[in-house]
């Protein structure tokens, strides 16, 4: 299994962060096997696009809430890492308490 679990919602409270706010969080490593997705489906076009990071953040966004890491944005990047046999991902991780 690539991820800890596959979810289809965001069980944590709304954080209100903008793209600029996320950019202020330094990326750090996290194991793919620690992540719970917040999307059940992925647009295959996004996964296979050569310029998939052109319009967005280079690093996935993860929310750490109640001892669980939720992959909020960047599912295509996480899957691409898994397809390349990587077990670790660099992501911006928001700590929510």
From TrEMBL:
Pfam families for this protein: VapB (PF23719)
InterPro entries membership: VapB-like_prob
Name of the protein in its database record: Type II toxin-antitoxin system VapB family antitoxin
């Amino acid at each position: 299994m690539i991820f800890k679990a596959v979810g289809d919602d965001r069980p944590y409270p709304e954080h209100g962060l903008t793209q600029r706010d996320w950019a202020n969080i330094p990326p750090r490593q996290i194991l793919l096997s620690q992540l719970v997705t917040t999307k059940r489906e992925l647009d295959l076009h996004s996964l296979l696009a050569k310029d998939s990071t052109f319009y967005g953040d280079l690093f996935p966004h993860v929310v750490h809430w109640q001892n669980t890491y939720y992959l909020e944005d960047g599912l295509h990047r996480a899957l691409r890492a898994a397809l390349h046999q990587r077990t670790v991902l660099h992501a911006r991780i928001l700590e929510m308490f």
